[in-house]
Amino acid sequence: MFEISERPLAGLFGSESAYQVLMYLENYENGYASQIAKAYGTSLNQIQNQLNKFEQLGLLVSRKEGTARVFYFKRSPVTDSLRVFLRSMLELLPRSTIEKYYRDRRRPRRYGKS
């Protein structure tokens, strides 16, 4: 199987944090700033700036859920095409990267499951 490096992808999107935000949201469907920053061990401020930038550009939308502002991709031909690209890149990342960043449990375990 062919694998790619993350470095060109980060360059393509202009910054590491921009790349991280887009890949995280593609993989998990939604997210909030502190969750994304924690997943990558990066600055919360950088992630917040990218989320706000992408929302201003019309790529993302957000809504308040409890005390958190949760971001999602906005439905449009541009974001639909971007998401196809991101999904194909996710499938080509090295297994170690997938395990590290993109296989986090997002829901609590079923009651009674050990």
Concise summary:
With 114 residues, the chain is an alpha+beta fold. It has six helices and three strands; from the N terminus they run H-H-E-H-H-E-E-H-H.
Question: How would you portray this structure in words?
Answer:
The protein is an alpha+beta fold and 114 residues long. It has one domain: Winged helix-like DNA-binding domain superfamily/Winged helix DNA-binding domain (Arc Repressor Mutant, subunit A, Orthogonal Bundle), CATH 1.10.10. The chain has 6 helices and 3 strands; from the N terminus they run ααβααββαα. It has helices at residues 6-12, 16-28, 33-40, 44-56, 77-92, 95-101; strands at residues 30-31, 60-65, 68-73. It has a 3-stranded antiparallel beta sheet with strand order 1-3-2. β2 and β3 (68-73) form a beta hairpin. It is globular, with a radius of gyration of 15 Å. It starts with 5 loop residues before the first helix and ends in a 13-residue tail after the last helix.
Strand order of the largest sheet: 1-3-2
CATH topology: Arc Repressor Mutant, subunit A
Classification by helices and strands: alpha+beta
Strand content: 5-15%
Number of strands: 3
Kindly state the percentage of residues in helix: 55-70%
Identify the CATH class: Mainly Alpha
Arithmetic mean of pLDDT = 88
